[in-house]
Amino acid sequence: MSERSGAGDTGYRKKPVNLAGGCIVGLLLAAILRSERIFVLAYLMPGEEGWRVILVRAIFDLCALAIFLCVLRYFLKMKSRKLTVYYLVAILISATAAVLSAMSVVMALKDWFLGRVDSGFWDTRGGTFLMVNIPYFFLVLLAAVFSGVFALLTRGRVKYIEYISGEVKIIENNGFGRKLMLSGEDEITDLCRSINHLSQKLLEKEQAGQEMERRKNELITNVSHDLRSPLASVVGYVQLLKKEGVSNPEKFEEYIDVVDRRLQGLACLVNELFELTKLNGSDVEMNFLYTDMVALLWHLACENEILLQQAGIGLVKDIVDARFEMEVDVGKMVRVIQNLFDNAGKYAKEASEVLFCVSCTDEVLEIRMQNLVEHPQGLCGDRLFERFYKGDTSRGEESGSGLGLAIVKRIVSLHGGKIEAIVKGELLCIRISFSKADKKT
Of 10, 162, 229, 252, which is most buried with the most CB atoms under 10 A? Predict the structure, then answer.
């Protein structure tokens, strides 16, 4: 159900109620002023005629008209956000309707009453009975008219309250996310708006909880998978070692190398998983220091250039000749850049080049690393920073833990930066930007 503002289907209108209330109060005050005019003319200016009497009448009539218009304008401009104002106006209108109905009955039956007086009807038993019960009749009439008009005027808000009650029960039974229709501009509407906000927030919290549960299960599954394969390999080779012993030195060395490689991979996975868990905690410690980022990035690029060359991959450095000082945790920032170079070293196409570009303005630093990927099949830039995401699973167990770029994203986020990955064919581009105006989270 869409959220709307206005009268809707409840029949509630603010302006007609204010108009009626303004007319009643204005007419009442104008009538009081006109009665004062009668007093002035009858007792202060008895028997006078001429321009002074006309002037007094004109002054009182103009004042009465001005008071009526001012009261009416005030009621029409009055912002009836308070439900009390609305019900007070409804009571005033209902009381006026009751009095007018009683006066109408009296005027209609006046001649009949006077005729009964001349005929001596009121001295009979029937007349006495009627005279005794007439006050009760008028009380019943006043109560009936008052109740009927008041119920008619407040019917819209009563229906709206019933509507809200029904919608809240639906939300209770069917779950959060349902929106209630907004009607009017009073406390009930504010309550309805708060219910909508609460329903949406609880829905988002519920969905976040479900997503967290899904990610937790996914994490357990991924950890189990990444631990099971190397552990099975280690167990298998240990069994072979126990069976064959050292009778075959070549085989023994081969088995030991495999076991050592698998155990190192397991240690790396556990360490990275532990580091990512610490980074995602609420009490992560950050040691911020003002650092020249351009100098730091140049130093890291030079260190990794040699390692990339040993792997048959060239490095093209395009680093601006400038200073860009910002608050960073140097150790964690080094981890970010190192992970990017490690990622390029593992997955860059053989005999290709890695472009490492650093540019900056007075307020923004941008880091860009791009390279051709050896196995681009199934690689998705939007998912590259997810935990345990490895793109093309055909690369096997040597493809890494799938946690390196997740750690990069978290550290960049802790520094208030932004990171994105773009995949176009075989080209992978990772872009990081830091702004001095951004706050650290």
Answer: 10
Is the separation of the CB atoms in 379 and 356 below 8 Å? no
Read off φ and ψ for residue 213, nearest 5 degrees.
Answer: -65, -40
Q: What is the pLDDT of residues 370-427, one digit of tens each?
A: 999 877 776 776 777 776 666 554 444 445 566 888 889 999 999 999 999 988 888 9
Residues linked to residue 328 through DSSP beta bridges, in sequence order: 289
Q: How far is CA 62 from CA 50, 55, 56, 363, in A?
A: 18, 10, 10, 69
| 26 C-beta neighbours (distance < 10 Å), count | 21
Q: How far is CA 55 from CA 40, 49, 52, in A?
A: 12, 10, 5
Token duo for residue 65: 């008209």
Identify whether residues 29 and 161 lie together within a single domain: yes
Bridge pairing between strands 325-329 and 427-435: unpaired
Q: Is 277 helix (H, G, I), strand (E, B) or coil?
A: helix
Give the amino acid at 360: C
115 and 35 in one domain?
yes
Picking from 426, 423, 419, the residue whose alpha carbon sits closest to that of residue 404 is 419
Which among 175, 210, 239 is the end of a domain?
175
Give backbone dihedrals phi and psi of 422, rounded to 5 degrees, phi first: -125, 130
Structure token digits, residue 86: 């609305």
pTM for this entry? 0.53
Task: Tell me which residue range forms the domain holding 314.
Answer: 288-435
Euclidean distance between CA atoms 257 and 263, whole angstroms: 10
